[in-house]
Design brief:
This protein is mostly helical and 82 residues long. Helices cover 45% and strands 5% of the residues. The chain has one domain (14-79). The longest helix has 17 residues, at 16-32.
Length: 82
């Protein structure tokens, strides 16, 4: 499944900066719904990640049309200043 298939098609394709934020939030969201509660982040962890996380491994290509859900889930979140 492509990541773009999960986005609302009525909305304009996000610009790169916003697209990176969307990817970070989607990846975090999937961690939050993990079937095993031991692998879900705590609310303080979610808050921290939303405050300081960024995703650096998305190329400048139109990722939204080619990135699969599996690839998104395998990307590394980089914690640091955006």
């Amino acid at each position: 499944m492509l990541l773009k298939d999960l986005l609302d098609k009525r909305l304009q394709t996000p610009a790169r900066e916003l697209a990176v934020q969307v990817a970070v939030i989607m990846k975090l969201g999937f961690r939050c719904i993990n079937g095993d509660p031991k692998f879900r982040p705590t609310m303080p962890q979610v808050s921290q990640e939303l405050s300081i996380s960024r995703l650096d491994h998305i190329s400048s290509s139109p990722w939204h049309s080619t990135l699969t859900l599996g690839e998104l889930l395998n990307l590394d979140l980089q914690v640091g200043e955006p």
